[in-house]
Amino acid sequence: MPGSLEPLDLGVQIPYHFRCPISLELMRDPVIVGTGQTYDRSSIESWVATGNTTCPVTRLPLTDITLIPNHTLRRLIQEWCVANRSHGIERIPTPKQPADPVMVRSLLNQAGDESNTRHARLSALRRLRGLARDSEKNRSVISTYNAREILIGILFSEMNCNSLELNLESLAILSSFPLSESECLLISSDPGRISYLISLLSNSSIDVRVNSASLLENVVAGTKSPELRAEISNHDEIFDRIVGILNYPFTITYPRAMKVGIKALFALCLVKQHRHKAVEAGAVSALINRLSDFEKCDAERALATVELLCRIPQGCAAFASHALTVPLLVKIILKVSDRATEYATGALLSLCSASERLQREAVAVGVLTQLLLVVQSDRTERAKRKAQMLLKLLRDSWPEKTVRDSDDFACSDVARF
């Protein structure tokens, strides 16, 4: 075998033994398998996950898939990266080792055993929280050992100040896991548990508030019973506190707060009979003021929430009274995604159907051009249908020049609707 492979575009040859035999790329987390060969962790894990049971190099059976970190080789690779940084090579950070299943099981047992001291249980939970935060793989390992049931038991075992730290650590870990339908039902069917989570939405720590909102969103979204979802969204304080998370002054520098806040608000607004509570809590201003700050997926969810609230009179009136509503919705129609186009157009359709003033305002800020582009684009059929309905509604408001130039957009197709 050659001492090095062909040079890359970096202008430097990478030593052969620094490359993973599977991917032929520079190893970031070299590990040794049972045959003594070294591979990059992600590559050998993928190899085994696809059903391979032999060592890629020696072809010997891999009877034990335990992966042992090759610390010496990793340090040599890091030193080589530093020595060649003038060629644009960045130093590979020291990887965090994945959670050991035996240790995870021990920590869960220690945390769940009420005969242990409070300090020992708290220490175990904090170590589990650190592992869960490190990687998706760690979360997968933790969830294998009945973790969610144990953590739910700890969170709601003693809902008082004496065990508050244990509760909050359990909550922090639980908020990073999806819950099963039965686990959601276990929480949503107990009014005391829901009230406790809602009370944590007013905690002095923004982290606690976000974790509680995350778990509540998970529960609402995962509960199939309309009656239970309605009971949760009927709590007077829940909308105020969720909107408070969206209005948190430093939300832009804390993206998880924005993500969790809009997910929770959307889940609660899916319950039609209580949408007015979201409006009363100030959701309209929060949505409009934050709309341009959301990332793609969250922007879609925010626009979906806007459309839902526009379907009730209180929501429609509140959005109509906000000076930025129509200009923002028109501006965003084609800027985010197909779904965002559909939601923004649907919201404008509701608003313009309720107010001739908003019709004139929408036309004045250029909605016609946007809608004509939607109709002629490859957007979803639902988005096109809403755009066509809105064009028909606004037909009497079209400026003469727009009507004269509309052949460029095949407007004759729109006129039939």
UniProtKB/TrEMBL annotation:
Ranges where the U-box domain occurs: 13-87
Q: Which GO terms describe its molecular function?
A: ubiquitin protein ligase activity
Its recorded reaction(s) are: S-ubiquitinyl-[E2 ubiquitin-conjugating enzyme]-L-cysteine + [acceptor protein]-L-lysine = [E2 ubiquitin-conjugating enzyme]-L-cysteine + N(6)-ubiquitinyl-[acceptor protein]-L-lysine
Record's keyword annotation contains Transferase: yes
* Name assigned to this protein: U-box domain-containing protein
Keyword set includes Transferase:
yes
Please give the pathway this protein is involved in.
Protein modification; protein ubiquitination
The EC designation for this entry is 2.3.2.27
Report the source organism: Mikania micrantha (bitter vine)
Keyword terms, alphabetized:
Transferase, Ubl conjugation pathway
| Stated role | Functions as an E3 ubiquitin ligase.
Gene Ontology terms: biological process: defense response; protein ubiquitination
Q: What PANTHER family does this protein's entry cite?
A: U-BOX DOMAIN-CONTAINING PROTEIN 26, WDSAM1 PROTEIN
